[in-house]
Specification:
73 residues; mainly alpha; 3 helices
């Protein structure tokens, strides 16, 4: 028997994915605006990340990087 997934669960998953994509894009944009060089591999890793905790950490590191701190010690 196939069970249907309630719409609110599907919408919640979509919302989470969109928030993650927005955070990932923001991390890359902050690094680019701060003239912090990142490799294509790192850019891809950031843009493919869906973990909100990791993205929050990376956003803090990106801001630190444009302030002159090492973003990934």
């Amino acid at each position: 028997m196939i069970r249907s997934i309630p719409n609110h669960i599907i919408q919640s998953a979509i919302d989470a994915r969109l928030r993650a994509e927005g955070k990932a894009t923001a991390v890359v944009e902050v690094l680019e605006m701060g003239s912090v060089p990142i490799s294509d591999a790192v850019r891809t890793e950031i843009l493919e990340c869906t973990d909100p905790d990791v993205l929050d950490e990376w956003s803090h590191r990106a801001i630190g990087a444009i302030l002159g701190e090492n973003p990934f010690p």
